[in-house]
Amino acid sequence: QHLVVNAGAVAHAAAQPVQGVHLPHEVPLPDAAEGRVAGHFPWAMTQGDPQHRPQPPATSPAQRRSPRRGDPRRPRELPPPTPGTRGGTDGADPVREQQRAGPAASGRRRRLRARMAPADHHHLVARRCRRPDLAARPAVPGTRRRGQRQAAAAAPAPAARTPAAPRSVAALPDGAVSAPARRPPPAADALRLREVLSRLSLGREDVSEAATLVNRVVSHLVQAIRGKESFFSSIERYSAGSYYERVKISEPNEFDIMLVMPVARIQLDQSDDTGAYYYVSFKRSPTEKGWLKFLEEDGKLSAFKMLEALREIIKQEVKNIKDVKVTVARKKAGSPAITLQIKNPPSEISVDIILTLKAQHSWPLSTQGGLKIEQWLGTKVRRDLRITPLYLVKHEQKNKWNTWRLSFSHIEKLMIHNHGNSKTCCESDGPKCCRKGCLKLLKYLLEQLKMKYPKELEKFCSYHVKTAFLHSCVTWPNDSDWQSGCLDHCFQQCLEFFVDCLQKSQLTHFFIPQYNLFSLEDKARHHFLSRKISHELNNGFPVFHENY
């Protein structure tokens, strides 16, 4: 008797926090137990006004049938409350009503109530005040008792949420039964991209013949330069560019060769606010007196004078190369390279020779926030790359003839060769990725569009798409993001990133975050290229097949 009375008192106390009264020793009710007590004592969940008391849900005749006396599994259903009675009963004390449900049911509720902490009960009541829908949330499957399962079977099932149909698949009408799901075949776009990529692969015989010819010409020139001018005696050769990064497309007809000159104890003074261009001067008088003739009156090292001296030596020496016809192309405004044209019937090979300074100098502050490859290649790799020598190439700006530009070609070459998040990516016995394939397709798309719209796209170059590709590698650093079978998806992601940069006229230098490779003066050109790329993306890249 005492246990039954306490259970009724606790049920009454559990409803008091809703009215603003908090008892210090409230015993919480679990969801299932609280629902049963509220069903027997509707007055416990009301505000005292009979007009505002919640009405019990409508039930079928089978559900209103009284259970067997003493059956602990199903509490007795009560008739709807009538005005003037307390709690929907015939005036009897609510404790007696609970007693009629049987001592076993009362003991079961008592055991359930002991499992919830008081603090959890306050939190539950507060949440139900804010979220009335929580009270109707179904219990965890498999935990319902027999009576609850029967009631759930009689109640109508909630409407299931219709999943969104894929973009290329029509949605089924209501009530229709779909066929069993099958693995979709490879997308047509993916097959076409792989066909294009296979055409871009260079033939081994052509590559071998072109590389042999270039190596013979460049080796002859390097030996001649070292012997003719003592100032250039320490010059070194470094191969850079897309061919040596193994992302060259179409034909092996373009090569980049850096002629590197070591220089010691230099001082860098920033020439503008981009953080990419600098004046170079010596901290002390150079031990090699040949440097003095390339210094300006203010002590700055003249990139223009050095490149002109190198050009004259090369122009004289190409005449001594036998069996191969080599000419020096005319100067291009702002170009840091000396371009050689090597006749190789039926085609012609172009070789850009770039004069480069190699300084044992710490990287400038403008590069501090760049090269964010920690999640892609690792923190240790970034630290090792940042302690490599600093490279500078000649670059002309408006009214500035003596400026040098920071060059990271050697770093880019290392990253593209070792591009995997794991050490075994694209090795002979390791998993393959599609990173290089995406870069080739990006370069080829820009190349084809430039051929189609040469005037509008003359200011764009392959370095723009290469930078966007490196940013994409940082955005999706894991090898699982670049699986070989996902070429079409990965290529689309890279293109969308590049189009977003074009629309914003903002392409951040990969090594110098404050340097925007897109000039704000060329917004119209950026938007033009973004429209053309979007058109190609939405129509299956017709430009890939126009010249075939």
TrEMBL record:
Residues 243-418 form the Mab-21-like nucleotidyltransferase domain. Transmembrane segments: none annotated. One of its GO terms (molecular function) is 2',3'-cyclic GMP-AMP synthase activity. Residues 42-186 are annotated as: Disordered. InterPro entries: Mab-21-like_nuc_Trfase, Mab-21_HhH/H2TH-like, MAB21L/cGLR. One of its GO terms (biological process) is DNA damage response. It comes from Cyanoderma ruficeps (rufous-capped babbler). GO terms for cellular component: cytosol; nucleus; site of double-strand break. Residues 68-77 have a biased composition (Basic and acidic residues). This is Cyclic GMP-AMP synthase. It holds the Pfam family Mab-21_C. Residues 434-534 form the Mab-21-like HhH/H2TH-like domain. Residues 149-167 have a biased composition (Low complexity). Belongs to the mab-21 family. SMART domains: Mab-21 (SM01265).
